[in-house]
Write a structure and sequence with these properties.
The complex is a heterotrimer of chains A (474), B (478) and C (441).
Chain A: H1 23-34, E1 39-40, H2 45-50, E2 59-60, H3 65-77, E3 82-85, E4 102-105, E5 112-116, E6 121-125, H4 130-139, E7 142-143, H5 154-160, H6 167-170, H7 173-176, E8 177-183, E9 189-193, H8 205-209, E10 218-225, E11 227-228, E12 232-240, H9 243-255, E13 262-266, H10 277-280, E14 289-297, H11 299-312, E15 319-322, H12 323-334, E16 344-349, H13 356-365, E17 370-375, E18 380-385, H14 404-421, E19 425-430, H15 448-459
Parallel strand pairs in A: 2-4, 3-4
Antiparallel strand pairs in A: 1-2, 5-6, 6-10, 7-11, 8-9, 8-10, 12-14, 12-15, 13-14, 13-17, 16-18, 16-19, 17-18
Helix pairs in contact in A: 13-14
Chain B: H1 5-13, E1 18-19, H2 22-26, E2 35-36, E3 41-44, H3 48-60, E4 65-68, E5 85-88, E6 95-99, E7 104-107, H4 113-120, E8 125-126, H5 139-145, H6 152-155, E9 162-168, E10 174-178, H7 189-193, E11 202-209, E12 211-212, E13 216-224, H8 227-239, E14 246-251, H9 252-261, E15 272-280, H10 285-298, E16 303-306, H11 310-321, H12 323-328, E17 333-336, E18 339-340, H13 346-360, E19 364-369, E20 374-381, H14 386-405, H15 424-427, H16 430-443, E21 476-477
Parallel strand pairs in B: 3-5, 4-5
Antiparallel strand pairs in B: 1-3, 2-21, 6-7, 7-11, 8-12, 9-10, 9-11, 13-15, 13-16, 14-15, 14-19, 17-20, 18-20, 19-20
Chain C: H1 17-20, H2 34-39, H3 46-57, H4 68-72, H5 79-83, H6 90-105, H7 109-118, H8 122-138, H9 140-146, H10 149-153, H11 155-162, H12 172-177, E1 189-192, H13 196-200, H14 203-215, E2 219-222, H15 230-234, H16 238-252, E3 260-263, H17 266-272, H18 275-278, H19 283-295, E4 296-298, H20 299-305, H21 308-313, E5 331-335, H22 350-358, E6 362-364, H23 380-383, H24 385-402, E7 406-409, H25 412-425, E8 430-433, H26 434-440
Parallel strand pairs in C: 1-2, 1-3, 3-4, 5-6, 5-7, 7-8
Helix pairs in contact in C: 3-6, 14-26, 20-22, 24-25
The chains are: A alpha+beta (474), B alpha+beta (478), C alpha/beta (441).
């Protein structure tokens, strides 16, 4: 018998009283639809790490969109809750599911369906890993414009809009996805967008699906825009002593003619948050913070950019990594925080010059251990916060007895309130269980939530797809 | 229907700002497309509150409406079908905020696109999406059509530069989507709204991304003996890792029209003229230019001109900017077709377009955005001649079919409007269309916002439209 | 619909049909049209007027009072034509409508009495104008305006009175008649054209112009012309315009005695150059009209043509002359192109700017949209005061942005409108004619 996840479920989206499905029969029925070799009962450790309290729903790994369709049709008919995952690298993002009757693993959807280096487009099955897509692009002398963990699937990356450091130059996922195919909640297969950048044929459904966390459909294929391989790339590494200093340098860069492809700042101790980072990036002992400024393009332009940044840097050393070394650093940076699923992790966005306030608040809070990172060119702030010691919250009236849960919740609430006040957002991307029960992973979305609910209702009236995982319990 | 709704509208916006006399309505029955349809009334709004109040009245009366900017749409998107009331946004043209440190700007939708960059220029910034019509089109219209322009290849289109919207939904509710920050949690409603051709609601405020003006610009022009050569050059440029800001191309017919009226010094037997522009840091610009000149020569483009200063740059652009004007002298009217193909298919696309011209006995001159495969065959005709019109429409459809067949799409930047309703099925299945319809239903359950656009009638025909047909004027050609 | 009422479109529209169908409705006329910028009404911009005109020809609509608003809202500045891919001549379309409308529905007071009866009679004009100024002097007119009586009678008249503060004193013709001829009698002769605007409202400008012409070494003959007729022409009253043109040709007589006919009013000089077109139906006047066209020069045009720039540059070396401006401090000056002088009509664009750059003590700065219509456009500013005020307000914004303390132009109508605009915006910017600047230097 499958149990529901061990926490307070919100009502299913459809409001219907749903019977508990029987897994033996369920497994059998799914197997008969997609083949028994596609169904398993053992769950990926990444899923367990993201949802510690789930039981053992059947896991299906369809080999093609048709198989996905079969599973979803069945789920809709029987009012099941399907949770979709790929490489599980970001599965902890968002709320745990309300119902989890079937796990759908997309990694059976694998390969390249259209390869067009001349026209700068690449169509990839959703379950293909980022590493494979990158390798394919490199083999064609092109750039796959997504910085994400190696083991993440392209479908997952698109569903979470998980763009990394070089989004400063490449744009976000919404800017590099040209089209996609998906399967809707009732099993219908659809395609959106195309292979060209100039496309205003019907609604831009691609944008709707990017960052939709699987709430509207299961992405089965993504067409990405590729970039030409740049002449050269370089990564400047600057030690800085304070958030203020970093803010000042970043502001100067953003106001200049320089066009960095990456502009990341790692807070104290955060280099250790990625296994490869310490070896990829030489970190001076004295440095409190590390700023990484990346450039790519024609050699002369990159050289001049590097020189200007070094000249402007307030302190030494000013290391420069080039080409393969720079690439290794980006790879390591993309793995930042992967595997930290148990810890509280936050991801916030704010206007470019305001985002530093969040870093300041966290640094000033004195909470330990923390690791944070600021992506100054796109306005991102990410933090991993351990349960350890922190000063007693003011006015709490309690001594050192204040639980770590209370402290972490207070800290998260402070940061979220600040992010919202700055015109941004803050979501909990891991370790939700270390906060007070019922803490909203997503935060206040504002009045447009209503419209989002209406969209969800049309696409998934019975709440089959990742129920309860997204904003507002969608 | 109470019949007092016109009075209510007048009470909201002022007596003079509601037009319903026949003469006035005749000036709002067209946009830049070939069809006409009389609106029921035209309302000039001046604020978000007025838009909301007006929409509430119309929604209550079950009267459809169309938001309109400058009416420069080329596919009929601004036509008021089914007795719609036009909500004219032109008065809402203010700049609300320029926020340089955050690289953002907040504007009202009625502002001319060019006026945005003109206001930013003294600060050293600009707004990247710059359609060729930028001095005459409104930002709201750009948002509706996800407008492009010659700089798309490097900088993207409107949707890549719009981060937040204040919307009046078709029931009059006012909501904000997006903001100054990126990748906000929730569905990207801003993203699905851009390019929705005014069918999901009305933009009343927009948050834009603004960019630092590039330090340097380098312009060059190549005269090509064949379309393959031109295509080869572009492919070679991409293969060399270069990302030009602009790649514009004009075909032989266009070149000859330009030489007739502008005398730019293009050889009349040139198969195509390719205009290339690089922008960015000054460092390396000279080398990249030389590299491109070498690539041109290696691909059979021997006549390459490089601008050495602003005057020469203007000279190289003169032909491209005057192209439409030059072509307009060849016949009373032209239809601007708009389709996209993967870039390498451009020569084949143009060959098939030429064949279509021969088949329908129509002259066609083409201008295209070579970097992204977006082509604009201009089909010449006399709009007074019904036979001409019929052939032009049919030829236009055939051009779109060619684009679809070659792996592209049927609208690059002008939208579906009413012009391309039939073409939607060239690229979408019924399931695809139905999925898009679900978004429409979520935003506009009553179906009042810009009816008759984007989506062809369901096949087989759906249920009747109800009593909205009472005041509907039929679409007339002209 | 009662078919006996339809008489069909005016026949005079037919020749324009092939031309107006070339309008592709692209809408590029919109941003360049000062009226559209102010009102946002499609009917006020070229595309809308052309659409209505075409509709009349195709009998989808009828010529009638409903269309008056669209066709009276036109400055005839040709900005639309300039940005039009098909170069549709909307100004001609508008004048065609105005003429046809008057033919079919009768002429208004302005046309019957002013254009046809008053303007051709300079003595009557002068008497009437003197009376108006006399009333002004007594304060009666101002009082009437202040208590709203004038506004009640006619808001347009109120606007006309606003445009010139104070009274001009003696008319220009009177002042010039009292002058002594300075040049030797064998000096080359120019005919100085009397513009209504300077004669009745800004006579000091005319005096400056004559001063400069004499300083250039010419004998100045003050012409006994009547109104050039542009106002009637723009109004579509082709007959009145032709009547005035014929009268002027007669009065000027044999032009061979003149080096040139000079006017510092861009409208007058521009319209004189169009006399062959105005008198196209009068073959016996054709030759004379052509000669007049060939002889006519606008002031800046003439000065630069005849080497006047050197005279100006060396000006401060002469006795009694100094740089423009007080205390020798340089004056920041910007320029406004009158429509009829500018690129879209006479194309006298560089000369006034060259003049300003040649004047010692003057720093010239170009204003944005310096070539866009000020919104006066003859009778337009009086007939559509609010829109006209919006138009000039926009222009004043650009002038303010230059930091200039002076705006120079070459048309009395523009001068009055700019003065009004500066006052309305609370700007401390004085308005001068090019000839006044030359006279001061």
């Amino acid at each position: 018998m499958a149990d529901h996840p061990n926490h307070e479920p919100s009502p299913p989206a459809s409001g219907i009283d749903v019977p508990t499905p029987d897994p033996q029969t369920l497994v059998g029925r799914i197997a008969s639809l997609v083949g028994s070799e596609r169904v398993a009962t053992s769950i990926d450790p990444g899923v367990r790490a993201a949802f510690p309290s789930i039981d053992s729903p059947p896991v299906v790994r369809p080999a093609d969109p048709g198989g996905v369709g079969e599973v979803l049709s069945l789920a809709e008919r029987d009012r099941l809750g399907v949770v979709v995952h790929g490489g599980t690298t970001r599965l902890a993002w968002g709320s745990p599911p309300d119902r989890l009757d079937v796990l759908l693993d997309t990694r059976g959807l694998h390969g390249f369906t259209d390869i067009d280096p001349e026209n700068l487009s690449l169509s990839v099955a959703a379950g293909t890993t980022v590493a494979e897509a990158r390798r394919q692009a490199v083999s064609m002398d092109r750039v796959f414009p997504v910085d994400a963990p190696d083991e993440a699937t392209v479908g997952g990356v698109v569903a979470t809009a998980d763009q990394g450091a070089r989004g400063a130059g490449w744009g976000g996922l919404r800017d590099v996805v040209l089209g996609l195919r998906a399967v809707l909640a009732d099993g219908t297969q659809v395609k959106f967008g195309g292979r060209t950048m100039k496309n205003v044929t019907g609604y831009d459904m691609t944008k709707l699906f990017v960052g939709s966390f699987g709430a509207l459909g299961v992405i089965t294929e993504v067409t990405f825009r590729l970039l030409p391989r740049p002449d050269t790339q370089a990564l400047v590494i600057l030690p800085l002593c304070s958030v203020e200093e970093a803010h000042s340098v970043a502001s100067w860069i953003l106001a200049s003619h320089l066009q960095p492809v990456a502009l990341e700042t790692l807070g104290p101790g955060s280099a250790g948050l990625s296994p490869g980072l310490a070896s990829a990036i030489p970190t001076p002992e004295s440095a409190e913070l590390l700023m990484l400024v990346g450039f790519a393009g024609h050699r002369a332009a990159v050289d001049r950019s590097v020189e200007e940044v070094r000249d402007h840097a307030p302190r030494t050393p000013r290391t420069v990594l080039e080409d393969a070394e720079a690439e290794a650093a980006y790879d390591a940076l993309a793995e930042w925080g992967v595997g930290e699923t148990g810890r509280l992790s936050l991801r916030a966005g704010a206007p470019l010059s305001e985002v530093w306030e969040l870093a300041r608040t966290l640094a000033d809070s004195g909470h330990q251990p923390v690791a944070y990172r600021v992506g100054a060119a796109r306005g991102f702030f990410q933090a991993h916060i351990g349960p350890g010691a922190s000063p007693v919250p003011a006015g709490s009236g309690q001594g050192a007895e204040t639980s770590s849960e209370a402290r972490l919740t207070a800290l998260t609430e402070t940061l979220r309130a600040q992010a919202l006040a700055l015109g941004g957002h803050l979501t909990v991307t891991g370790g939700l269980q270390s906060l007070s029960p019922g803490f909203d992973a997503w935060g206040d979305i504002g009045p447009s939530l209503d419209l989002m609910r209406r969209v969800k209702e049309r696409f998934d009236p019975h709440g089959v797809l990742n129920p309860g995982r997204f904003v507002g319990g969608i | 229907m109470t019949g007092t709704w016109l009075k209510e509208l007048r009470a909201i916006v002022g007596h003079e700002d509601v037009l319903d006399s026949p003469a006035d309505l005749q000036t709002y029955e067209y946009d830049a497309y070939l069809e006409r349809c009389l609106p029921r009334a035209v309302v000039f709004v001046g604020s978000t509150a007025e838009v909301s109040a007006v929409v509430k009245v119309l929604a209550r009366e079950n009267i459809p409406f169309v938001p309109r900017g400058c009416g420069t749409n080329l596919s009929g998107g601004a036509l008021a079908l089914e007795g719609s009331v036009i909500i004219e946004m032109g008065r809402m043209d203010r700049i609300i905020e320029i926020d340089v440190p955050n690289q953002r700007m907040i504007v009202q939708p009625g502002i001319f696109n060019l006026d945005i960059s003109t206001a930013l220029s003294p600060l050293g910034y600009y707004y990247a999406p710059d359609p060729a019509s930028q001095k005459a089109c409104s930002l709201g219209g750009n948002i509706a059509e996800n407008a492009g322009g010659p700089h798309c290849f490097k900088y993207g289109v409107t949707t890549n530069h719009v981060l937040g919207l204040e919307l009046v939904l078709p029931d009059g509710e006012v909501v904000w989507t997006g903001g100054k920050d990126v990748d906000r949690p929730g569905f990207d409603l801003t993203g699905v709204f851009v390019g929705s051709e005014g069918t999901l609601g009305i933009v009343t405020t927009a948050i834009l991304r603004i960019l630092r003006k590039p330090e340097a610009v380098k312009t060059m022009l190549g005269v090509c003996d064949s379309l393959e050569d031109a295509g080869g050059v572009v492919s070679a440029i991409v293969a060399a890792g270069l990302v030009p800001a602009t790649l514009e191309m004009m075909d032989n017919r266009t070149v000859n029209a330009i030489e007739d009226s502008l005398a730019c010094g293009f050889p009349r037997d040139a198969a195509a003229v390719l205009l290339i522009e690089l922008d960015g840091l000054a460092d390396g610009m000279e080398e990249m230019t030389e590299q491109i000149v070498a690539l041109c020569k290696a691909n059979g483009v021997s006549d390459v001109r490089v601008a050495r200063d602003e005057t020469e740059r203007a000279g190289l652009w003169k032909g491209r900017k005057g192209a439409f004007g030059a072509i307009s002298r060849l016949a009373p009217n032209y239809l601007v077709a708009d389709g996209t193909v993967p870039r390498t298919q451009l020569p084949e696309a143009l060959r098939r377009v030429a064949e279509i011209g021969r088949q329908y006995d129509l002259e066609i001159a083409s201008v295209f955005h070579a970097g992204d495969g977006n082509l604009h065959p201009l089909i010449l005709f006399d709009s007074r001649n019904p036979d001409d019109r019929a052939r032009v429409m049919a030829a236009g459809m055939d051009v779109l079919q060619v684009c679809a067949d070659l792996g592209g799409t049927v609208s690059g930047e002008h939208g579906i409007g009413i012009e391309k309703l039939a073409a939607m099925r060239m690229v979408f299945s019924e399931d695809d269309l139905q999925a898009q319809g679900m978004v429409k239903e979520a935003f506009d359950p009553l179906g009042l916002c810009n009816p008759g656009k984007v989506f062809p009638a369901p096949s087989p025909p759906g249920p009747p439209q109800g009593d909205r047909s009472i005041a509907a004027a039929t679409v007339t050609s002209g | 619909m009662d078919s006996t009422h339809t008489v069909g479109p005016p026949e005079e529209f037919a020749p324009f049909y092939d031309h107006v169908v070339t309008c592709g409705k692209c809408g590029f006329c919109q941003p360049t049209c000062p009226i559209f910028r102010a009102t946002g009404r499609e009917g006020h911009v070229a595309r809308g007027k052309v659409a209505l005109y075409r509709n009349m020809i195709e009998e989808r609509t009828e010529i009638g009072p409903e269309l008056k608003d669209a066709f009276s809202n036109c400055l005839l500045c040709r900005a639309c034509t300039e940005s039009c891919f098909s170069s549709v001549k909307t100004d001609q379309v508008v004048m065609s409508f105005r003429h046809a409308y008057a033919e079919r529905f009768g002429r208004g007071f302005l046309q019957r009495r002013v254009f046809r009866s008053l303007l051709p009679r300079p003595r009557l004009m002068r008497a009437l104008v003197r009376m108006v100024w006399a009333l002004r002097k007594t304060g009666l007119a101002d009082a009437a305006r202040r208590i709203g009586l004038v506004g009640l009678l006619n808001p347009k008249l109120e606007r006309a009175l606003e445009l010139r503060l104070g009274t001009p004193g003696a008319l220009l013709t009177k002042r010039l008649s009292r002058r002594e001829q300075k040049a030797p009698s064998d000096a080359p002769r120019v005919g100085y054209w009397i513009s209504c605007g300077y004669n009745y409202v800004l006579p000091e400008v005319g005096e400056s112009t004559v001063n400069v012409l004499e300083r250039m070494g010419f004998q100045v003959e003050v012409l006994k012309n009547v109104c050039c007729g542009l106002a009637a022409h723009g109004y579509g009253d082709k007959e009145a315009a032709a009547q005035l043109a014929r009268e002027n040709v007669r009065r000027l007589g044999d032009l061979s005695r003149f080096e040139a006919i000079v006017s510092e009013c861009g409208s007058c000089s521009g319209h004189l150059k169009e006399y062959p077109e105005v008198l196209a139906e009068d073959p016996e006047y054709a030759a004379a009209a052509t000669r007049l066209q060939e002889k006519t020069r606008s002031f800046s045009e003439f000065l630069v043509e005849r080497g006047g720039l050197d005279m100006l540059r060396d000006g401060s070396a002469e006795e009694g002359r100094g740089p423009v401006g007080e205390d020798g401090a340089p004056v920041d000056v910007t320029y406004h192109d009158p429509c009829h002088l500018g690129r879209r009509y006479q194309n006298v664009v560089d000369q006034p700017r060259d003049i300003l750059r040649s004047l010692p003590g003057v720093r010239f700065v170009e204003a944005t949209e310096s070539d866009s219509c000020c919104g006066a456009a003859g009778t337009y500013g009086v007939l559509h005061p609010e829109t006209s005020a919006s138009i000039i307000a926009r222009k004043m914004g650009f002038i303010e942005a230059t930091g200039a303390s002076m705006v120079v132009t070459e048309c009395p109508s523009c001068m009055m409108q700019l003065s009004y605009g500066a006052r309305a915006a609370g700007l401390d910017v004085s308005v001068k004619n090019v000839s006044q600047m030359c006279d001061q230097a």
